[in-house]
Amino acid sequence: MIAAQRRICGPLLALACLIAVPPALAHAQAPAGASPGSEEHDHASAGSGEAESRDGRTPSPAGAYVYIGWPQDGTVIHSTRFKVWFGARNIGVAPSGVRVPGTGHHHLLIDAPLPSDLTSAIPSDKSHLHFGLGETETVIELPPGRHTLQLLMADADHVPHNPPLFSRRITIYVRPSPSARVSSAE
Ligand SMILES: [Cu+2]
What we know:
Elements: H1 14-19, H2 23-28, E1 65-70, E2 76-77, E3 81-89, E4 92-93, E5 103-110, E6 128-130, E7 137-141, E8 145-154, E9 170-174
Parallel strand pairs: 2-9, 4-5
Antiparallel strand pairs: 1-3, 3-7, 5-6, 5-8, 8-9
This protein binds copper (II) ion (CU).
Copper (II) ion (CU) binds next to strand 5.
């Protein structure tokens, strides 16, 4: 999953590359092991502990993971408009652009797989929603049918952490009941 030592400075990310690695932050980010919560320390895959990696990606904190709190996998939802809430453990949620170590913001992938390249910024379109204000829930509207949802965390520049933090991809079924269609007044 770690794409070798790619240094991504394409046009899209030029700005990110300029500001990605302030040396002061790199030092601030190294309090490995100082955390009181020791229960997650044996999760080998999480939290590389390296300061910013050479490709400029933000390391995931130790033991960090994200999950969709609701809906759950397989839920049948009787409305085309419904709430989704996002969970994050061992990582803070901060608005995009805020460079605080150990934080990121949520992205909801709707009917879309994980981006094939997890080392550059997540696209922004109707299947890749960014919650750049630091939101931890949202209300979405989907047509009747089968849909998939997946969360993907990313750093201040919308680039997934290293290693990347994403939830399980869940499947839901939108089956509005006749009485629940009232909301389509416009
Ligand atoms: Cu984003």
